[in-house]
Amino acid sequence: MPPSWVQRNPQPRTIIEAAQLAIQVTDIGEVRHFMPHSQIPLIVHQTWSHRQIDTWPDDLRQSVEKWLQFVVEDEMAYFLWEDEGMVEFIDHFEPQAHDYYSSLPLMVEKTDYFRITVATCVGGIPPAQWITSQDVRPWTDLETRSVYNSMKPVRALFGIEADCLPTDHTCWRMGYPYSIQLTQWSFASARDHPLLHQYIENLAHQLQKIANHHGGLQTSAARTELQALDPLTLTGPEAVTRAAQEWLNTSAGLRWNALTGLHDGGKAKLVDDVLILPITSFR
Questions:
Q1: Could you tell me if 255 and 144 are in contact, meaning their C-beta atoms sit under 8 angstroms apart?
Q2: Hey, how many other C-beta atoms are within 10 angstroms of the C-beta on 119?
Q3: How far is CA 109 from the centre of its chain?
């Protein structure tokens, strides 16, 4: 935690207490606690299975060291969530979701779900780049001529991982179900964003449907069905894209394929309070 965050507060003894402190500090609303042009708190969440640093890959160790340097030099908090810590977080902040979380058969699915949940409850997870003034400029849907000129601060940020023409089936040949598909591995959000709640509700509905059909999520039949599902669809980029598509259609009437960067040089697009970065932002 940044030294200034704990000067007037008791030193957190656990990562759960640290998360509660981060919520308390950022709820005050001071600009220095947020990414530029946004209400997204400067809180980095990283996940790894354990803290045995001597066994970590070099790139992970270097990444953690870099983030910790930012914590010391800037007003940014950093959390490293182990597998056990993720369970503790779910049980503390979203206890009603424990069965859903524990039923997911793959660790990558649990991690996907956790990252959405921690962003919903605490906020943060900055992406690969900061938000600039150019990113939040008005833009026009080149097909419908609808102009998007939101004056709201950014409260959620996602990046495109697939940007294909919707008419030539390129996305299917590349393995993407959506011609415009978002990535779930790098995103940022303020607390309680409706788009994240949409993701959680979609997943809960799907899991509850399986539970109802098989008499619970821990039955052999339910586990078999869950294991047969594609994690990309259940919790990964397809699930994030579906939630974003549904929410932005509801909140702003967005035509989803208007987000393409193929015809405007790859511009970022602000829709309501959600900023969508082009695929080139992650190269």
A1: yes
A2: 25
A3: 13
Question: Strand 147-148 and strand 139-140: pairing?
Answer: antiparallel
Kindly write down the DSSP assignment for every residue of the chain, as one continuous string.
Answer: --HHHHTTSPPPSSHHHHHHHHHHHHHT--GGGB-TTB--BSEEEEE-S---GGGS-HHHHHHHHHHHHHHHHSS-EEEEE-HHHHHHHHHHH-GGGHHHHHH--SHHHHHHHHHHHHHHHT-B---SS---GGGGS-EE-TTT--EE---SPB-EEEEEEEE--TTTTHHHHTT-SSSEEEEEEEEEE-TT-HHHHHHHHHHHHHHHHHHHHHTSSSSHHHHHHHHHS-HHHHTSHHHHHHHHHHHHHHHH---GGGG--TTTTS--EEETTEEEE-GGGG-
pLDDT in tens, 179-204: 999 998 889 999 999 999 999 999 99
Cα angle 259-261-262, degrees, rounded to a multiple of 5: 125
Residue type, 153: P
| Interstrand relation of 180-189 and 77-81 (parallel, antiparallel or unpaired) | unpaired
How many other CB atoms are there within 10 angstroms of residue 76's CB atom?
Answer: 22
Residue with tokens 């996305």: 171
Q: Is the pLDDT of residue 74 over 80?
A: no
Amino acid at position 130, single letter: W
Q: Which residues contact 14 (CB under 8 A, 6 or more apart)?
A: none
Q: Output phi, psi for 177, to 5 deg.
A: -80, -20
Q: What are the two backbone dihedrals, phi and then psi, of residue 237, each rounded to the nearest 5 degrees?
A: -60, -35
Q: Please report which confidence band the pLDDT of residue 126 belongs to, taking 50, 70 and 90 as the band edges.
A: low
In angstroms, rounded to a whole number, what is the distance separating the alpha carbons of residues 42 and 125? Answer: 8
